[in-house]
Amino acid sequence: MSLNQAQAEAVAHKEGPCMVLAGPGSGKTLTIAKRIEYLITKYKVRPEEILVITFTKYAAKEMKERTRRVCGKPAYSVTFGTFHGIYYGILKWAYRLNQTNLLTEEEKYTLIRQLISQMDWEEIPAADEEKDYLQDLAVEIGNVKNNCLNIMEYDSLKYGKERFRELYQSYEYEKRKQKKIDFEDMLVMCRDLFRSRPDILEKWQKKFRYILVDEFQDVNQAQYDVVRMLAAPENNLFVVGDDDQSVYGFRGAKPGIMMEFVKDYPDARQILLNVNYRSTGYIVKGALKVIGHNKARFAKEIIAEKKPDETVHVQEVKDPMEESRYVIDKIREYTERGISYSQIAVLYRTNLDARALSEVLMEYQIPFTMKEYLNNIYDHFIGVDISSYFHLSQGEYDRKYFLQIANRPKRYISRECLNEKKVSYESIRNFYCDKEWMMDRIDQLEWDMKMIRNKTPYAAIQYIRKSMGYDEFLKEYAAYRKIPEEDLMAVIHEIQQNSREYQTISDWFAHVERYREMLKLQNQKRESTDGVALMTMHSAKGLEYDTVFMIESNEGSTPYRKARSEEEIEEERRLFYVAMTRAKRKLIISYVKEKNGKDMNPSRFVDELLLV
């Protein structure tokens, strides 16, 4: 394949630092592969002196295969790997580590869970929210290391300075006691090793004289520090990235490191790969319009190799259900025109944004694949509560149903009165025969169940929420657990909205069971490629599709409601830019007018796109 002028310039770079700004679809993988070939054949560099670092095992494997196709046999001695893989290899050699020394994600969560229970943290969440909670804590512990921060000075906004420090130090102590290292330790320990042992550093510097780093915009401070030490003193450091696609701030990545690179290496060569071979002119122009609102970035002029074809389409819809039907109608229309399901992607900011669509896709039997594991909304405690109420209303008096909802909302019904496998209102009354005020509560529960027995599921849920006080219970629960009230309200609202399709409670049960089975099958075939691709914007990075839908492009979704600072908003805009530039030919962006009973505004990024 022939190279354009900028690619040829990057390929021919020989020695010293070089930063290649590679926009979406600009052929960076080919450029890296051709440069390796050039180093070996033209500059006679020994292949074993070349180190290529990327971020995922998949990307490293792809880069290795591409390079071998371009270079042939000489490329077999080039080292390809991830940051963690390479640094772990160095630690293994220095400290004789093996697999048993690695702390798995599951072990990490177990350890954090033990520590917060010992420290008596009040807001340990319910079982169905616990994983996210532990994950957030693990990420923050990791970010302290990734950013090379001093824990004695670190202030955790979410968990408090003193309390988080105590957790961090206990975590480190327990880990060392078990002779374990976690994912982030691989970076920090390698950094410390090179600082304390110049002789070991020199050995690895001599081994890897030419270093190429892909996706450089995703590096964190610890990774950058080590790679700089490794590249010295010759500084044959060739980095390829796009600051506009830096979207992993939550992992410690920062686009500022690309700016830092220019300051750290003032003589570094800068090359812009300015031709987009992937997307049509309208998509490239629209995406640049949006990302142009970011201040902290390298200014770039990108041109599209493909001529303008179809314009970017922006669609307003009433709510997520109408949006789902709109997307499905369009998917059917495009597949009838000959576009395969696997060439269509639906992107969204968080997994929750996909629930309504995935449910409708299953109902309409349109095949789809999901990168992320999709949680069943009916397994959420709110879904289980509604289901328990429905079972009781149909005269199914199993103990588990009473136990689930007895005090949701608070009725002061004790577990002790629910001893039998089958419970009756009469047995509860007998237990409380000396408490007149409890009789009223039991009578009311029995009456409420009669009231919802023959209602439609939608009307029954409305009655549970408003007449029985379930919404008030959720507000109190959210306050007690210190979780956002709107998160719980979103779940109950979605369950209620999805129930509109069904006329009877038994129809609703049949749907829930069918959905459970389909979801189980769906989660089993996550790696399959034969279907419409559903994924978060983060997961879409590096991929491309003929047709892309971006759903729920609303304020609060994108930018995400938790993003408040200018830095966070700029990262959200970069994520929107990444999503837009996945599309090769057709890009459809939709936003809803209402969700969970609230009026919604289109995303500011949609407004920026539409600005004339």
How would you characterize this protein structure?
By secondary structure, the protein is of the alpha/beta class. A six-stranded parallel beta sheet has the order 3-2-4-5-1-6, with helices on both faces. Strand 2 (50-54), helix 3 (57-71) and strand 3 form a beta-alpha-beta unit. The two termini are 38 Å apart. The model has no long low-confidence stretch (mean pLDDT 89).
Give the overall form. Answer: globular
Distance between the termini: 38 Å
Could you report the average pLDDT, rounded to the nearest whole number? 89
Can you count the helices?
Answer: 25
Largest sheet: spatial strand order = 3-2-4-5-1-6
Rounded to an integer in angstroms, the radius of gyration calculated over CA atoms is 28 Å
Structural class: alpha/beta
Helix content: 40-55%
How can the largest sheet be summarized?
Answer: 6 strands, parallel
Number of strands: 16
Strand-residue fraction? 5-15%
Q: Which regions have little confidence, pLDDT < 50, spanning 5+ residues?
A: none
Secondary-structure map with pairings?
Elements: H1 5-11, E1 18-22, H2 28-41, E2 50-54, H3 57-71, E3 79-82, H4 83-95, H5 105-118, H6 127-146, H7 161-177, H8 185-196, H9 198-207, E4 210-213, H10 221-231, E5 237-241, H11 256-264, E6 269-273, E7 275-276, H12 281-291, E8 303-304, E9 313-317, H13 320-336, E10 344-348, H14 355-363, E11 368-370, H15 381-393, H16 399-405, H17 425-431, H18 436-452, H19 457-467, H20 470-481, H21 485-498, H22 505-524, E12 532-536, H23 537-540, E13 545-550, H24 566-580, E14 583-592, E15 594-595, E16 598-599, H25 604-610
Parallel strand pairs: 1-5, 1-6, 2-3, 2-4, 4-5, 7-8, 9-14, 10-12, 10-13, 11-12, 13-14
Antiparallel strand pairs: 15-16
Helix pairs in contact: 1-2, 2-3, 4-8, 5-6, 5-7, 8-9, 8-10, 12-24, 12-25, 13-14, 15-16, 15-18
